[in-house]
TrEMBL record:
Record SUPFAM superfamilies: Porins
One Gene Ontology term of the molecular function aspect: siderophore uptake transmembrane transporter activity
GO BP annotation list: siderophore transmembrane transport
Keywords carried by this UniProt record: Cell outer membrane, Membrane, Signal, Transmembrane, Transmembrane beta strand, Transport
Domain Outer membrane protein beta-barrel: residue ranges: 184-561
Signal sequence range: 1-19
Domain of life assignment: Bacteria
Organism: Spirosoma endbachense
GO cellular component: cell outer membrane
Compartmental location: Cell outer membrane
Protein name, as recorded: Outer membrane beta-barrel protein
Length: 610
């Protein structure tokens, strides 16, 4: 697939160069017809160099339009992860301290090619093919120190030095067909069909050595894990829209999706006689999921200023999961009713009040469902086929005028997903961590957005969000609550300088907030960029530096005295002070909008995979 993407990219580049000579021949009297595009190149340097490029191309005729988008990134980055955890085990304690440095080399290619045809004045037929081919290699070295025991019985200490080499090839192919027919103004019928195929190849190699000076040296342990997770998704959707009188519009639709996920995991260990497969650990699971939905929405305009919209969506889900022998260990069927309500009222020319209520269903992403294990942390587990869907009720009231906005939002989630939920082993009281559902999550957020023009060449955009959140989890018949008041402030300062220069300073700071079953500690970032618009429509140069103060690190703290649990995990996944230089140039008809994306029937399903 990578070869196909590169060939299409070369074709796109030649088409982009040819477009400039063709544009003057295309419909000189119609600004919506012709050819337009944009090309960009990027180079950067953090701990390691990185690069990227993209091309967008749109060509419109009276009866057809074509569009293309290609993106390539090539990054190499240093990531640092640390984890310090104290938790009970049996009658004593287990304390682990892990530090890991990972060098991640990643190359990503993505491509979208589409065409829209108009066989008649009221009918449109659209075709879209897209995909990506991502390749990543992770070379990680880690140290794990652990001690286990009690004050009376003494402590058993151990230290391990390890290395992990991970190779991942993550590919997607998608095809979409879209048909829409307009009977009259505001009266239409449309159909969408999507097919998606994902390939996830993820082999891992582990090597570890006992590094404790007080313990007798042992032979290095070697282990290979091969994980293959292909996914197939089929989606069909139909929507019908028609006016009811002069003030109302009715929308109805149906949607059906079918998913097949295979999760094959094979672990082998090096023994004296050679590589031996671990049959007890290996997995070969199959997930079949079908979802059917019917929905309707009625929008009524009581006046030129007041609009009411009410809707209802009904979904039926059937999920089944089987092991290699065909035995079912997950069989779940359920209905979901998802109402929506929205009332808006205009005030003057630019003011508006809005009140809305929405119920949503958030299904677990597939990488949280598929079973897998990481052996550099003995307390960490991945993959939980028994994850429940999350149901969220959201009430929001807002006021906006010009660019100022004020909003108050309350959300209640049932069975919210936690990527690192604590789980207690009843046999030895040990605590592990992995994907799981909390009981509930409640949050109240007040947000404010306020632009300020200090002078004609200096403008600012400021936003503030203050949130009180509380999450709850039941373990061993006891419910634990973690609540936190927090906030986040964002500001962007834009300076319009002489000679077509523009400078921008973006900064944000977040206080500690409740996150899953713990707290996400304070963090922030300052980014500076300078842009130069070249004369004669020759493009734009942009130079930027991200995370100037090295303050954007994710730190998760979980402290539960009743469970004797204290855990701090730090992720430094984004390198600080990355210097980037980018060049962007548009070509073709300047009055045309370059469009290379559109919604399809599988937008919701792709969020669970990507």
């Amino acid at each position: 697939m990578k070869t196909s993407l590169l060939l299409l990219a070369l074709w796109a580049a030649s088409a982009g160069l040819y477009a400039q000579s063709m544009v003057n021949r295309e419909a000189t009297t119609n600004d919506s017809l012709g050819t337009a595009g944009q090309i960009s190149l990027m180079g950067g340097l953090g701990w390691y160099p990185r690069s990227g490029s993209s091309l967008q191309l749109t060509h419109r005729q009276k009866r057809a339009s074509f569009y293309l988008a290609y993106t390539m990134t090539n990054d190499k980055a240093l990531q640092q992860i640390s984890n310090d955890c104290s938790s009970p085990i049996g009658e004593g304690f287990l304390h682990t301290n892990i530090s890991m440095n990972r060098v991640v080399t990643q190359t990503n290619h993505s491509l979208h090619v589409g065409a829209d045809f108009r066989p008649g004045s009221k009918t449109m037929v659209g075709l879209l093919v897209s995909g990506f081919a991502n390749k990543a290699q992770i070379d990680a070295r880690y140290q794990m120190a652990s001690e286990q025991g009690t004050i009376l019985s003494g402590w058993t200490r151990n230290r391990i030095d390890g290395q992990m080499l991970e190779n991942r090839r993550w590919q997607q192919r998608m095809a979409n067909a879209h048909v829409q027919h307009a009977f009259a103004a505001g009266h239409s019928l449309s159909f969408d069909v999507d097919y998606l195929a994902y390939t996830d190849s993820n082999p891992n190699q582990y090597g570890s050595q006992n590094a404790d000076e007080t313990t007798e040296k042992t032979d290095p342990a070697r282990m290979n894990i091969d994980r293959q997770t292909p996914i197939r998704i089929q989606v069909m959707k139909a929507d019908y829209v028609r006016p009811l009188g002069k003030q109302s519009t009715l929308e109805v639709g149906v949607k059906a999706s079918r998913l097949l996920l295979l999760n094959r995991v094979d672990r082998s260990q090096w023994k004296a006689t050679g590589w031996q497969s671990d049959v007890a650990f290996n997995r070969n699971d199959r997930l079949n999921e079908t979802i059917g939905a019917a929905y309707t929405n009625l929008t009524t305009r009581f006046s030129d200023k007041t609009t009411l919209a009410i809707g209802l969506r009904a979904e039926y889900t059937n999920s089944q999961m089987h092991d290699a022998q065909g035995a079912s260990f997950l069989n779940r069927q359920y209905w979901s009713l998802l109402p929506t309500f929205s009332l808006s009222h205009k005030i003057g020319e630019n003011g508006r009040y809005e009140l809305s209520y929405t119920r949503q269903i958030l299904r677990s992403p597939f990488d949280a469902i598929a079973s897998f294990s990481m052996f550099w942390d003995p307390l960490l587990m991945t993959g939980n086929p028994a994850l429940q869907p999350t149901f969220a009720d959201i009430i929001r009231a807002s006021y906006s005028v010009n660019r100022f906005s004020l909003a108050l939002c309350y959300s209640h989630e049932r069975n919210p997903l936690s990527r690192s939920a604590p789980m207690i082993n009843p046999t030895n009281n040990a605590i592990g961590f992995g994907p799981g559902n909390l009981d509930r999550s409640d949050a109240l957020t007040l947000s404010l957005s306020l632009p300020v023009t200090i002078c004609p060449w200096w403008q600012t955009q400021n936003s503030l969000a203050m949130t009180f959140a509380q999450n709850s989890l039941t373990l061993q018949n006891k419910t634990y609550h973690i609540g936190q008041f927090g906030g986040q402030f964002n500001m962007t300062h834009t300076f319009r300088l002489p000679h077509e220069f523009t400078a921008e300073v973006t900064a944000w700071y977040a206080t500690p907030t409740a996150n899953e079953f713990g707290r996400l500690l304070s963090r922030g970032e300052v980014t500076v960029s300078v842009q130069k618009k070249l004369s004669g429509n020759r493009g734009t140069l942009t130079a930027s530096v991200t995370d100037l103060l090295w303050t954007n690190q994710l730190r998760f703290l979980t402290t539960v005295p009743e469970l004797r649990l204290d855990k701090l995990t730090t992720f430094a996944l984004n390198e600080p002070r990355i210097v980037r230089l980018a060049y962007t140039r548009s070509f073709g008809k300047a009055s045309m909008k370059v469009n290379s994306q559109r919604r399809t029937a599988s937008d919701e399903e792709r969020k669970r995979v990507n």
